[in-house]
Amino acid sequence: MACGCLRKSRCGCGKRRRAAKDWHLSQRRCIVGPTPDAASRRRYMTQNRRSFMQHLTFAGVSAATLLKGSGAEAALATGREAAGLAPPWPGMTYRTLGRTGYKASRLIFGCGAALSSRRQDRLLHTAFDAGINVFDVGYKHYYDNAEKHLAPFLKARKEKIFLISKAAVPVDRAWNEEPTVAELKTAAQRWSAFLDESLAEMQIDQVDAYYQMGANNVTVVGSEEVRRAFEAAKAAGKVKHMGISTHQNAEAALTRAIETGAFDLAMIAVTPGGWYDWETRKVLPGSAPMHTMRPLFDRARESGIGLIGMKAGRFLAGRMFLGAGDPDAFNGQYTADFLKAELSPFQRSYAYVLGHGLDAVNADMQNLVHLKENFIAAATSHTYFPDAPGQAIA
Fold it and tell me: Per the CATH hierarchy, to which homologous superfamily does domain 94-383 belong?
């Protein structure tokens, strides 16, 4: 189609007069439409450059994550987050943890398994930046190098988080056997020494809370010897608050902790279906469902204990050493409306326990997929369940 221009090299019209060049450019709209102004061209180039860089980042980070041994799903999720291509995170919600007075994120980052064999700095900082401000770890005799691998993150963030560590009170007795006073004194000294080891591993002088890990013996929980060891460590500036973590004989251990008045935190293994049983890795046989436990939880809170859940969804998915999983295990505890919510089985279990008496939930998160999945459940739990009177979400 002839365009009427005067440049043979472009349009074949037979005329070459240089003086007509400006006229030709003004008439270019007859072939390609209006010429974009400079601002439009800059916006177009910026948008395309940004898109290119986003996808380049996505590809690079995904590949690097995959090479580190993460699964394909985790690698893709990490790449999308790094490139800014993933959906936004919801805002985290917070609760005051008992007598500690600390306004804690309702999701706690369980660092033990995640950091036992390697550093996870990117994941830790992502969690912090998203709004998680409580990090839980444990001593090297159980979690290998987790505390050591947490140290670089603590160097940058220690003053802005609530840090928990824990160690077993080493009494060679079954949960239903009573240790002697001499055994308790020795165990208390070793528990205190474990704290010193933990501080050295993390290259810090103080933790915010220190737990009796795996507490199942009510005599140990109520021991004056252990309490005095804690008070000495507190006086030395090594720790602020004492707590327990319990996943066997948990109801009795929590009850004893309430009675002593010495504990500020309790991390309990509980599922929507009832108490978690460490021996069978399932719901404790004969346990009442969680919705009946509110009176006990209210007693704990009234005594100044902040309540943290764990193992909320441990056996929903199968593991080599735990047997086949059952993603529908707790569906009988849920209402029809809650089952319709767009949540995974894990998200549903976390949201449920937070909606039935717990202040926060501790989760083992070893990649970005798990972190974001659990984060969404904790941040949105209050939209599915009303909170206890006087326990407003911050």
Answer: NADP-dependent oxidoreductase domain (3.20.20.100)
